[in-house]
Structures are given as C-alpha cells and as structure tokens.
Amino acid sequence: MTTSLAHPPPRADVTRNGRRDGGPRDRARRRRRITALAFVLPALVLLGALVVYPVLFSVGRSFFDASGSRFVGADNYAEMFRDPTTLTALRNSAVWVVVAPTLLTGLGLILAVLVEKVRWATAFKLLLFMPMAVSFLAAGIIFRLAYEEDPDKGVLNAAVVGAHEVFQDSSSYPTARAREGQGLDKRPDGSYETAAAVSPGQSVALGLVGVPPKELPADARPAVAEKAGPKDVSGAVHLDFTPGGGGRPGVIDAAEQGLPGMTVEAVRDGKTVATATTAADGSFRFTGLQAGAYTLRLPAENFAPPYEGVSWLGRALVTPAIIGAYLWIWTGFAMVLIGAGLASLPRDTLEAARMDGANEWQVFRRITVPLLAPVLTVVFVTLVINVMKVFDLIYIIAPGPVQEDATVLATQMWLVSFGGGNDQGLGSALGVLLLLLVIPAMVFNVRRFRRSQS
Length: 454
What we know:
alpha+beta, elongated, 49% helix, four-stranded mixed β-sheet, disordered N terminus
C-alpha cells in the first residue's frame, strides 16, 4: 500500500508563505551584522560629525555673504578668481603640487637605493626619518631661524657669508666718507677723487671720517705721509679725526691713525696708470711716474658694504625656501616607503640582469624603476594630497610682509575667514575649491589600492 503526499512537509526554517522562519544560521548572520554595526557605528558618528557635516556646512555657507545672512549664490566663487591674492595662492599651490612631490619621490628613490649599499642602513634610515617626529610648528620655527638674513642669527647666511669671504674679501671701511671741501670729491660710482691735480714730487694727505676708532684694524698705526721723490707721488690715507678734539681738518695730526689696506689709484687721462695699497700707517707711494698731472682715486670697493648673504625669505625665494623645509621633513617618509617596495623586488631578476652584463645604472633605470612604479605612484599621489593642505610651514616661516607672496589655498582660506578678512562665505568657497582639487587624487589613490588588493 503506497501513500502519496500532495505537498511535501515544510522545512523547519521555512514558513508556509516561503519566508525563512529565523533558523540558527539566519540568527547567527543577523547577530554578526548587529555586532559589526555596533563596532562601526562610533566611527560613522565621528565621520559624520567631523567630516560630512563640516563639508556640507561649508558648501552651504559658501553661497552666503560674509555675515551669513544674505544668499549671494555663486558670487563668492566668482570673487575668488577676481582676487589677485587668491590667484597668487592658486599659482603657488600649483608650484607646490608639481615641485615638492616630484623632488621628494626622486630623493626618496635615490636614497632608498643608496641606503641598501651602506653598512649602517638602519641607523641612516632612522636619522633621515627623525624629522617626521617633529611637528610642522616646531619645524617652521627651526627654519625661520635658519633662514634669518642676519648672518649672526641665520645659520644658512652665516655659511654663505663665510664661503663668500673665502673668495672675496669684504671692505674694512663701509662707513668711511670724505669731509666736504677738504680735497676729495665723491663720484657717482661711490669712489672718491682728488679735486686738484697731483704731480710727481708731491705728497698728499687723503683724510676720511665716519670710521669709529674702535673699529680700526688691529694693525693700524699713526698716520705718516712720507716725502715724495722727483718721480714719485706719495701720501697717506688717514682717519681725519683726533680723539678728544683739537685736530685740524685735512692735516695729519699726531694722534690720527692711518687706514691700512686701502686701494689707491693714480689716474691720467681717465685711465688708471698705477695702483697701490696703503700700509699699516696709511702711507702709499707711486714710483716711476712720468711728468704730468694725475688724479688720485679711492675706488668704490674700499667703501662697499659687507656681504650680508641671501634674502631667503624675500619675495623671490620665500616659496622655494619653504619647500626646502618641507623636503627636510618628508624625505624620510618617501625613502622608507620606497625602501619597503625595494626590499620586495625579486632579487633573481636583478641578479640575472647583472649576469647578462647590465651595469648598475641600466639595472636601476630599466628594471628597478619599472618594478617600483606602483610604489612610486602611491608615494607621489599621497604627497600631492598632502601638499595641497600645507598650512603650518607657510604661516610660520613666511614673514608678514611676504605672507601674500607665499600664500597657498589653505593659508588663504584661513586668512580670508579668520586672519583679518572675516569673510567666512569667501573662505568657505575656498575650502570647497580645495576639496574639489584634492578629491581626484584621493579617488585615484583609493582605486589603485583596491586594484593592488584584488
């Protein structure tokens, strides 16, 4: 006897309408989802409060005026591109994006390759990576001091001035000048010439003032103008000042000092025919001169101001100088990341190339760099995103008078909103522009990361 069933008995986890009745697997899956949501929820709340809400608020605020009470539409966005300072910020941001990531990626690659060949590689990496532990605020203060124009304060200018003085001596008398009406006339080029002609057989006293006695060279002696021979012109360059008073202008008095190291030229018909350098007592002598009239000249280099170095934080160099500080901080980061990629390269490929006769440059250019291309791209794009947001270094290092010449979008956004402009509508528009410029690089980085994980 057989029994047929019109309908099979329902499964334990399926109801009559076909839905699951919450079996053990379903309940376990729901519990896992709830647990995952519980862990993710705090992060989502923070993300919404710290990222999503400020972005949406800034977008909305950018369509209102400075006070936030009147809707102005796209006027703030139009104003951005009419403001010369904002255009300067855009130009400087473009310079940062092109120069800084390129230099950092190149330096990181070179250092990562070279570090592999040194004995104390770990110590060297640690030394280069240490600036990453320094905040941008501290780094900005360090480089603001290093870039000081005064050689007594700024280490870079101290080095530049020291190197300059090795090859070219500076003047010992930058403040010296001649008394008016005492026989020396100043020329347009800064030199001094005798007002009256001088002939062989004469001795001339060339008096200068403006040099503090305490600043005279250590070898300076009391001035003496020796008597000239029949074919000679002699004289002395002296400090025409008697300490305590009582001296006579234009005359060498007993208490007056000579000015050693001064260059004196004998000029005839506009041409220099003889040159002499004053001795410790200021004396000089031209011998073997032909008969005729001569003019004695003290060239302008005798009075040249001392070399003060380079104006690192001037209008022309402020942006390259700040980029240099940025390189100091981030070179170690690029080197470590590229070094990690270099360590994962297949060594058998490199050795095979060397065995085939390739030199180190060919191995580097045709094998190492192509294999490191994904790592180099990630480093470059990451640095592009970072430099788009640079703020601290520029705000701290750039002096007030050149702040506008060094400004980028991030600093301009802050200055317009809070640094005196008090126009948060325009500042919000700048923030939105900065976000739009950063998003493509972020999307590219995320997509590349996903491809590398698949």
